[in-house]
């Protein structure tokens, strides 16, 4: 069994979740970490027994021992850091959202093809077995024909002392960080992209969207509606409504480990898929499987789908008047 050596860019909170999941893998090895803060890099390396620590990203990208790099920095850094790693010929797993705008993700996907490397957006929900089970239930006709999907996702981040969602230089706001999930899951469930998008939202004086509401109509005549908020504490559930019942993904629906199936009379089944670790393990294993197979991306989350998600968010941003600074929008 070939061991896959991983490097991590950005040893923050989400990288800790990722590292904990990787510790349970039989073939993944955390071999290096890169951080602009030498202190944070050293502390992260000590906690997870990582042999190599770099204080610049170029050095990690050029490390011949590293097979794949996980990028876990804030949104605004994704494009330049992923581009750097891909140009160095590295496989890349890039934390969501892939980029700030569609032009950036299109460049990265083309670069991955040119370099003949694996490049994957890390929308963890798309790799979870519970989602596959839900899709199978729908295909089996358990809830009849889907009519619409509705969801909310949000937290009262303004009560926290500091938060990156209120920093426009980091690509902050509710849409890119939270709204991505209902878009990505609707895309997976319906198997198509919207033909009509209607959005409303309030852009704060800090130039981030605090609450955004989006309606999407699909070519099949089905709908998806969601609210994302960085200032309101939402129920955080998703309901897939059909002609003969519905399926509910309860609180924290993006952490897809349970689904409740209802028919016309009430609850008929609860599907439980507790994570072996914390939910990140699925995308880790799928990434390594794809690297072994010489694939550029996983069929569970394709490049076209990643581009489609960012295009939708570009349209929403245009409608609500959300524009980030030229520095992070640049290609």
UniProtKB/TrEMBL annotation:
Entries under SUPFAM superfamilies matching the protein? Glyceraldehyde-3-phosphate dehydrogenase-like, C-terminal domain, NAD(P)-binding Rossmann-fold domains
Q: Which UniProt keywords apply?
A: Oxidoreductase, Signal
Show the InterPro entries listed in the entry. Answer: Gfo/Idh/MocA-like_OxRdtase_N, Gfo/Idh/MocA_domain, GFO_IDH_MocA-like_dom, NAD(P)-bd_dom_sf
Ranges for domain GFO/IDH/MocA-like oxidoreductase: 132-247
Spell out the Pfam families in the cross-references: GFO_IDH_MocA, GFO_IDH_MocA_C3
Q: Which residues does the UniProt record annotate as the domain Gfo/Idh/MocA-like oxidoreductase N-terminal?
A: 4-120
Q: Which domain of life is it from?
A: Bacteria
Sequence similarity: Belongs to the Gfo/Idh/MocA family.
Protein name as annotated: Gfo/Idh/MocA family oxidoreductase
């Amino acid at each position: 069994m070939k061991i896959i050596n991983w490097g991590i860019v950005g040893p923050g909170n989400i990288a800790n979740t990722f590292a904990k999941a990787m510790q349970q893998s039989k073939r993944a090895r955390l071999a290096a970490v890169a951080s602009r803060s030498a202190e944070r890099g050293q502390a992260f390396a000590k906690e997870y027994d990582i042999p190599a620590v770099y204080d610049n990203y170029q050095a990690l990208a050029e490390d011949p021992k590293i097979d794949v790099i996980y990028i876990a920095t804030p949104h605004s850094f994704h494009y330049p850091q992923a581009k750097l790693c891909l140009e160095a010929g590295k496989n890349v797993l890039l934390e969501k959202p892939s980029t700030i705008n569609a032009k950036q993700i299109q460049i990265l996907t083309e670069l991955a093809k040119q370099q003949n490397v694996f490049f994957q957006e890390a929308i963890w929900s798309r790799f979870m077995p519970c989602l596959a089970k839900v899709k199978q239930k729908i295909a089996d006709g358990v809830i009849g024909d889907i009519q619409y999907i509705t969801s909310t996702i949000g937290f009262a981040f303004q009560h926290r002392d500091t938060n990156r969602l209120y920093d426009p230089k980091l690509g902050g706001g509710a849409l890119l960080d939270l709204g991505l999930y209902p878009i990505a899951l609707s895309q997976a469930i319906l198997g198509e992209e919207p033909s009509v998008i209607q959005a409303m939202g309030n852009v704060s004086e800090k130039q981030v969207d605090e609450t955004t509401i989006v309606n999407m109509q699909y070519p099949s005549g089905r709908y998806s509606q969601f609210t994302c908020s960085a200032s309101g504490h939402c129920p955080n559930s998703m309901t897939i409504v059909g002609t003969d019942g519905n399926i509910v993904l309860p609180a924290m629906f993006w952490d897809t480990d349970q689904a409740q199936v209802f028919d016309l009379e009430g609850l008929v089944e609860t599907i439980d898929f507790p994570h072996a670790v914390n939910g990140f393990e699925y995308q880790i294993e799928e990434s390594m499987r794809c690297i072994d197979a010489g694939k550029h991306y996983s069929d569970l989350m394709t490049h076209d789908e990643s581009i489609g998600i960012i295009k939708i968010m570009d349209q929403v941003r245009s409608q609500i008047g959300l524009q980030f600074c030229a520095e992070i929008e640049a290609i």
